Amino acid sequence: MIDPVIHPDDSKEQKTNRNLAIWIGVGGIGGFALLYVVFFLVMILRPGLMFKLMPMPMPMVIDKALSDGNRTYLLHQEIDWSTVTPGEKRQPVTKHFLSPLNGTELGPAQEIPKFDDASGGDNRLLFLSKGNYRIYDGSRWTEVQSEAIGKDPKGVLSPAGVYVLSGTDSGQRLSLIATGAAIDIPLPADYLAWYKCEQCPCAKLVRYAGRLCLFWKGKDTISWTMWDGHAWAPTSTSPYAGGYEVAADDRNLYLFYREGEGLERRLTYYALSNGAWTGPMDLPVKGSFTNWDAFIQQGKLKLFLQQFTTNTLYTVEKDTLVDPVRLKGPFSPTEMVVRTVLWSAGMAALSFLFVLGVSALIRRFKKRIWREEATEYEFASLFRRFVALMIDKILLFIPPALVIAFFFKKMDELADDPLYFMAPIFSAFALFFVGSFLYHALLEGLYAQTLGKRLCGIRVLKADFSPCGLGAGFLRNLMRIADAFLYYLVAVIALAASSKWQRVGDLVADTVVVSVKGCRKREQPIIVAEEPDDGGSEEFEFERAGS
Fold it and tell me: DSSP label at 410?
């Protein structure tokens, strides 16, 4: 029968521990090397698969919200990584999609060709690209080729055709295109002078009360004029800073512009009706926003706001926003949390199985019982120590997770400055690491157990099996920096090599981790005196059963 008790001076046992540590080290490093090779091969050969498996979902990027006058549509894009091949050096492809908004959900998405500009009206959508435009009436597509459409085209639908403003080698060109034929319209002198200096493709076209309106922005001003079919009206100019959007129908024209930055950013608009401007009217937009679109739908002014975690469609009534329709934003906290939890649960399950296998291997070859005078101590297995650590990490992660969840929820109300959002997140993680160190060091030093160790029935003692103490508790946890290298592989190698099942932190702090139930008093030998056969006396010592 093999003696289960550890004998420190046993050279055979020392050799077994050394060989076990070597095999674990070689196997662990080889396993990690293989995983990294597979990871990089997948990243190179099938990057799309890796992005699908990652806990952080790829954000849905919305290019624009617009309406044909009756329904709202969203234009969004997705990056297709499956087209990437290292041999042909092909880049990921950006695909564009058009989706109708049905209540609070997006309808079926249809892929559409890349476009430069899009607008809507008269129950149609207009998509412009260099050399052509495409019209969608809700069920059918119509495409028209025209050399009159140059680079960076802007356009608007009208009963007479499509007005297109685009760039050519000689400058800017405004054309009315109908059934493939193009009629050039002279541009106002003020606009041509501005374009010659600015070279900015940031002009906008809308139709208001049967007339074509042209808007363009300067450094601190915005200018506009109207074409009645024969001549341009005198140019109007007003002070302006920031981005702007224009929406119009036959009765009203609305000019939106952004003012301020960060927490002071706000949206303001003016309304033109019956030849008179009213405003400015400040809209109660909470928090920061990345972009916005304004359009007319069923005679109502709509505002689509894009924020980090939500996209919201509002109806604008004077200086208020009503009837919000909220959609998932580029970064959905709920989806991120769900995917992170599923990812973590999967990784935890694999880790549990892996550690269980390694722990069984170590227990197969290493002895766990240590006799110290009249007491036997059983060292805690690798698996119990791992489970205790996981329980403690989950408990410690709850407070910073709540902080992070709170700030994710409030992300849209924070300023554009990333520090307003990232500072609390980094502070939460710093609190997690500092709190984790103090939690383990203090509880192990004062009470020999953390909550996880208590639930798993193990505790920390000095190597001579006396109480741990604060000094040793702080030192053994400070050395987690070394133990955690290569996902705690260093700790496992040290545990396998040492006779007292000690990781690096235990060796430095001179501590051990033992099972609470495995600590027991040895049974004392029984001395029995018997009558001698020849009149003499002799004592016989009987060993306890199983010794």
Answer: T
Q: Alpha-carbon distance 48 to 248, whole Å?
A: 42
Which residues, listed in sequence order, are joined to residue 75 by a DSSP beta bridge? Answer: 64, 98
What sign does the CA torsion over 524, 530, 533, 536 have?
Answer: positive
Tell me the mean pLDDT in the region 317-333.
Answer: 81
Angle between helices 333-365 and 382-409 (to 10 degrees): 170
At residue 278, φ and ψ (nearest 5 deg) are -125, 150
Q: Is the per-residue pLDDT at 523 higher than 70? A: no
Which DSSP letter does residue 260 get? -
Q: Which residue has the tokens 């009837």?
A: 323
User: pTM of the prediction?
Assistant: 0.69
Residue 15: helix, strand or coil by DSSP? helix
Closest to 477 in 3D by CA, of 442, 446, 515, 430: 442
CA distance 188 to 528: 122
Position of tokens 């003696």?
A: 3
Rounded distance, CA 203 to CA 149, Å?
Answer: 15
Cα 452–chain centre separation: 29
Closest by Cα among 140, 177, 187, 184 to 157: 177
CB 178 within 8 A of CB 189: no
Mean pLDDT of the chain: 83
Q: Is the pLDDT of residue 547 over 60?
A: no
